[in-house]
Amino acid sequence: CYGGEPPFHGETETETHTNILRGKIDFTDMDLQPEIEDFIRRLLTIDPKNRLGSKSFEEITNHPWLKGHDTSNDEPPFKPELANPADTQYFEQRYSFKEDDDGDILEDMQDSGSVVVNDENIETFQSVSVQQLSKANEELAKKYEHLKSPADKKQRPSTPQQKRGRSSFDYDSPGSPFRNMLSRRKSHFNSRIIGTDNDDD
Predict the structure, then answer these.
(1) Does residue 52 contact residue 61 with C-beta atoms inside 8 Å?
(2) CA-to-CA distance for 120 and 71, rounded, in angstroms?
(3) Which H or E run includes 192?
(4) What does the pLDDT look like over 152-195, one tens digit per residue?
(5) Residue 57: exposure state from Cβ atoms within 10 A (0-12, 13-18, ≥19)
(6) Rounded to an integer, what distance in angstroms lies between the CA atom of residue 141 and that of residue 133?
(7) Sequence-ordered list of residues with C-beta below 8 angstroms from that of 169, at least 6 positions apart, any chain
(8) Which of 78, 148, 163, 182 could form a disulfide with 152, with the two C-beta atoms 3.0–4.6 Å apart?
(9) DSSP 20-50
(10) Where is composition skewed (Basic and acidic residues) in this entry (predicted)?
């Protein structure tokens, strides 16, 4: 058996990706015959046009490492028995998930002190719908409604009949800070006028 690890690897994930893009393979620690090393390199050539086997299957079988070997008599290591051409039972077996498949993961989580509920199934997971979000927003709005000042609560709601250019905030409401400010300015202005009249007398 030749190999045992991916042909492209690095100290970091980024370095591994770089080696893949550049086709850089390190055979330093692999005890391989020159013919095998050449065979692997040519199979992993970046440019598909120059890759071994791009022209024909015979190009692969005529490689020095395989030349002279009669592949017609080779028995496949596994021959699937299909009920029909569209049978996918082998794929279903390979990708089916069993309850005990995550046993080692649960053990690691328990050893780390994480809370694990063994009888909880992923099917019980509740997704969040738009209606749930809308309801939560309404409840939140009602909660903060109590924090409003009495003056804010007395404000008249805006109506479609309001003139353009006017804010939905009612400047004339009794608790309006703008009305209070204008009243103070008016009182101050009147007192100044009265004071001026008295000075003239």
Answers:
(1) no
(2) 52
(3) helix 177-200
(4) 555 555 555 544 444 444 545 555 555 566 666 666 555 655 55
(5) exposed
(6) 12
(7) 155, 176
(8) 148
(9) HHHT----TT----HHHHHHHHHHT-SSGGG
(10) 63-78, 145-155
Tokens found for residue 33: 């015959």
**CA geometry: angle 19, 22, 28, nearest 5 deg:** 55
Q: d(Cα 49, Cα 96) in Å, to the nearest integer?
A: 38
Q: How far apart are CA 8 and CA 40, in angstroms?
A: 12
- Is 198 exposed, middle or buried, given 0-12, 13-18 or 19+ CB atoms closer than 10 A? exposed
* Interacting residues of 171 by C-beta distance below 8 A, sequence separation 6+: 178, 179
Helices (H) and strands (E) counted in the chain, each on its own, are: 8, 0
Query: What are 137's two structure tokens?
Result: 């927003």
User: Which tens digits make up the pLDDT trace of 52-108?
Assistant: 999 998 899 899 998 888 777 888 888 888 888 888 887 776 666 566 666 677 777
Global pTM value: 0.37
Instruction: Give the model's confidence band at 6: pLDDT under 50 very low, under 70 low, under 90 confident, else very high.
Output: confident
Residue ranges of alpha helices (H) inside 44-159 are 57-61, 89-95, 103-111, 130-145, 150-153
d(CA 180, CA 173): 10
